[in-house]
Amino acid sequence: MQHPRIAGRYAKSLIDLATEQGALETVYADMKFLQSLCAASNEFVNILRSPVIKGDKKQQIIAAVTTNKIGKLTTAFNTLLINKGRESDLPEIVNAFIDQYNAIQGIHKVTLTTAVELSETMKKSITDKVSAAANLSQVELHTKVNDALIGGFILEFNNNLVDASILRDLNDIKKTFSQNLYIHNIR
Hints:
GO terms for molecular function: proton-transporting ATP synthase activity, rotational mechanism. The chain is of the alpha+beta class and 187 residues long. The chain contains 9 helices and 4 strands. Helix 7 links the parallel strand 1 and strand 2. Helix 1 packs across helix 6. It starts with a helix and ends with a helix.
């Protein structure tokens, strides 16, 4: 992250303006779109961060990519960022906006890593159980697949980590066997 404090301030300003204009949900949807765009396209992020490409050219590129996909307020915000020379911070601002929006709405991000892809019913069941067990009002579940886990899961939320994977169990056994406590008694 290049400038987390700046990203937080711009995100807070955008949230305040969107709330004032009654367009918070629309801007949130726009930010989700921009977040997926930045995650999917390294070229787009590299263009934003390039000191060689002029601001007006960046404005044209952003307009071409986001035409009919984001609202007027978000478009005006992107223009402001370019005019202030902060377009390179757009990915961080988008993430800060989504984090602040989730905090306002009481949405908790939960990341679940499993060895295999889960069905929608299983995801719903896990979301309900995590919500009830941790006393969370709203849960946004993000899933990852890591076949190295062999089985089980890793659950991350609110700076907590629950590792119930077979990989961790095997590593614990390996660590236990690598520390032979009885070898000095043989001599």
